[in-house]
Amino acid sequence: MTDDRPADSPVRVLIDLARVDRNVRRLHARAAARGVRVRAHVKGHRTAELALRQRAAGAVGIAVTQLAQARQYVAAGIDDVVIAHPWPEPWRWRETAELARHCRVSAHVDSEAAVEGLADAAAELGVTVGIRVQLGTGLDATATPDGRLLALARAAAARPSLRLDGVTAYQALLSAEDAKDAAAIGRSTAGYCLRIAALMQAAGLPCPGVAVGGTPTADGALAEPGVTEICSGAYALQDGGMLAIGACAPEDVAVTVVATDQEAADRVLDQHPYPWQTALDHQRLASTAPPGARLSPPHICALTPQVRTVTVYEHDEKRRIGIWQVLNTQDTPPARPTNPGRTKGS
User: Fold this and answer.
1) Are 268 and 262 in contact (CB under 8 A)?
2) Coil, helix or strand at residue 16
3) What does the alpha-carbon distance between residue 200 and residue 5 come to, in Å, rounded to a whole number?
4) 223/217 Cα distance (integer angstroms)
5) Is 107 helix (H, G, I), strand (E, B) or coil?
6) Could you read off the pLDDT of 78-87 as tens digits, one per residue?
7) Residue 292: its pLDDT value, please?
8) Which whole-number Å values give the CA distances from 228 to 44, 80, 165, in the listed order?
9) Rounded distance, CA 184 to CA 311, Å?
10) Which of 302, 238, 235 is closest to 270 using CA atoms?
11) Contact between 257 and 240 (Cβ < 8 Å)
């Protein structure tokens, strides 16, 4: 496991916990009113403390892409984890099964090889791994043929070491025009998930879960009866990108960036913009502020991988709660085992 993020960052990240709690309550209440679970995708904040706070507020669990980070959340007390990426590497299948020894685990899959690999690893360790059939990529949730999706579901249902948890999809907003239609895109993605779920059930396959990802599309997805889970990342902290498309109000942005080195901070803030943002917008935002000024980060999911800690305040920087570690540990394949019986020249 490695953490190669810089020890010193040209920005300090401040979090307003009162705003966080308000954001969390708002989405959870909207989902609960429709009988839908919320799963917190932790890519936005990457802190165990906030994940536990979301869990206590009603989140069913977390979603994470890195298994190394998943282990850190489980060690902190999280007991329900979705590995929200269809990893193709066999060593990750084994580590997913290992994680299932300590918590409830479900993994996104998009290939029969992954289904079989996860099943074999789980059977070897005597655990059960959940399977969520990923319907497509974030660029196009509808990209995978129906027949292939049904084949994946059948393969998962056939293995005793697996638990077919249902289907999942995330449709990214790819332009400013998409951002204007976020609710409609959420409804369309949910409708597609529900259609595939119905095909699975008609084929005699279980489909207990229909999970749809995304913060700006969440309201649209919630409008479709039959969705069981919303997986959302930015909703707890929000950011400048969400504000720009009306997904939140200014008073909802719970994260502030303090630039300690303006030129270097510009580079940090400009990392991986949303499709409706431009580098010029970021530079203009940063360059108009003197060193030490407070800024709203353009994209929270791109900011947190670049810092080691966040400073948390109760409200408007009136009382400091503490400094939280950002969990940026990345997966690395295990070292190949050596053969102690083999010697030089043998």
Assistant:
1) no
2) strand
3) 43
4) 10
5) strand
6) 999 999 999 9
7) 59
8) 22, 16, 11
9) 36
10) 302
11) no
Rounded mean pLDDT, 88-112: 98
> What stretch of H or E contains 73?
helix 67-76
Between vectors from CA 298 to CA 137 and to CA 72, what angle results, nearest 5°?
65
Tell me if 166 sits within 8 A of 209, measured CB to CB.
yes
What does the alpha-carbon distance between residue 20 and residue 17 come to, in Å, rounded to a whole number? 5
Q: Is the pTM of this model over 0.85?
A: yes
CA angle at 92 for the pair 304 and 341, rounded to the nearest 5°: 125
String of DSSP letters for 292-344: T-EE--S-HHHHGGG-SEEEEESSTTSSEEEEEE---PBP-PPPPPP-TT--T
> How many angstroms separate the CA atoms of 306 and 328, rounded?
9
Alpha-carbon distances of 336 from 6, 73, 319, rounded to whole Å: 28, 26, 49
């530079």: which residue's tokens? Answer: 283
Specify the DSSP element, H or E, that contains 233: none
